[in-house]
Amino acid sequence: MSKLIRWLCLAAVAGLILASSASAQVVPKLSVEVGKATQPGDLSVTLQIVILMTVLALAPSILIMTTAFIRIAVVLSFLRQAIGTNQTPPNQLIVGLALILTFFIMTPVFNQSYQDGIKPYLDEKISKEEAFTKSMAPVRKFMLAQTREQDLALFVNMAKLPAPKNADDIPLHVLIPGFVISELRTAFQIAFVIFIPFLVIDMVVASVLMSMGMMMLPPIIVSLPFKLLLFVLVDGWYLLVKSLVESFRM
After folding, report:
1. CA trace torsion 64, 67, 71, 76 (10° rounding)
2. 116 touches 90 (CB < 8 A)
3. What is the distance between the alpha carbons of residues 221 and 59, in angstroms, rounded to a whole number?
4. CA nearest 194: which of 97, 82, 71, 74?
5. Are 151 and 182 in contact (CB under 8 A)?
6. How far, in Å, CA of 118 to CA of 112, rounded?
7. CA distance 231 to 54
8. What b-and-e string marks burial along 142-174, b requiring 16 or more CB atoms within 10 Å of the CB?
9. For the chain, what is the radius of gyration of the CA atoms?
10. Per-residue confidence band for 15, with pLDDT thresholds at 50, 70 and 90
11. pLDDT in tens, 107-152
12. Cα–Cα distance between 235 and 42 in angstroms, integer?
């Protein structure tokens, strides 16, 4: 018992020594202050930080609204509903697959944007305004290729702008919403084609069950295996991904 008490005392003394040494170390202090700017450069740096944080917060929305993500995500969601598996594949898998296909489709656009605008700006060869214009040019070209003239005209008229003479005269606040509704329309068209074969299977199974007098048995339970079998036999993932990628006019 005396040895145990002795070891406990030694451990307590060692703990006090370590605590005192840790408190003696200098811990860096990080603080954010709001005060009066003494130089114009201080205000400029502060505004740049605020703008950068805002852009980072809106980056997911920008990625969704200006790339191929809209069409792919909507089509994959409709495919899940058409098959009848409301939770399979899960949402995380659908979003992940949509992001992977989006990066695959948009890689040439991003590479050209980097080479034309971002890289020269980092090399201090062009200004910020010119870098933004050149880096957005490939993205604008991609969005214009997927957007219908009718959708662009809708937002041009609602914005009360004069008729643009060429594609360069279309502002981004008009091009982006036109691109979004065009993508939604195209995604719904693809979803309609996907729904037809699965709807036929549901109707056939429901008719067979009705003729057999099995009205209490939900048709979705019987038709689900047949729909899965059909999707596997026709190599559905291959056909769907191939059709989605080829549907974008580059």
Report:
1. -70
2. no
3. 41
4. 82
5. yes
6. 10
7. 43
8. bbbebbeeebbeebbeeeeeeeeeeeeebeeeb
9. 30
10. low
11. 888 888 888 887 887 777 878 778 878 888 888 888 888 888 888 8
12. 60
Residue type, 186: T
H or E, element range at 87: none
Domain limits, the chain = 58-194+236-247
117 close to 135: Cβ distance less than 8 angstroms: yes
Give the max Cα distance, the chain: 96
Report the share of the chain in percent with pLDDT over 70. Answer: 78
Q: How far apart are CA 109 and CA 197, in angstroms?
A: 35
Look-up of token digits 């991003």: 110
Q: Reply yes or no on whether the pLDDT at 10 is more than 60.
A: no
**Hunting for tokens 């549907």 — which residue is that?**
247
| The Cα angle at residue 240 between residues 234 and 241, in degrees rounded to 5 | 125
Measured distance CA(61)–CA(55) in Å, rounded: 10
Distances from the Cα of 58 to the Cα of 21, 177, 190, angstroms: 45, 16, 29
Least confident of 40-49, 87-96, 195-204: 40-49
* Count of H-run helices and E-run strands, the chain: 10, 0
Residue-level pLDDT at 8: 46
The string of DSSP letters for 153-184 reads HHHHHHTTPPPPSSGGGS-HHHHHHHHHHHHH
Separation CA 120–CA 113 (nearest Å) = 11
Residues 128 and 141: their CA atoms lie apart, in Å, by: 20
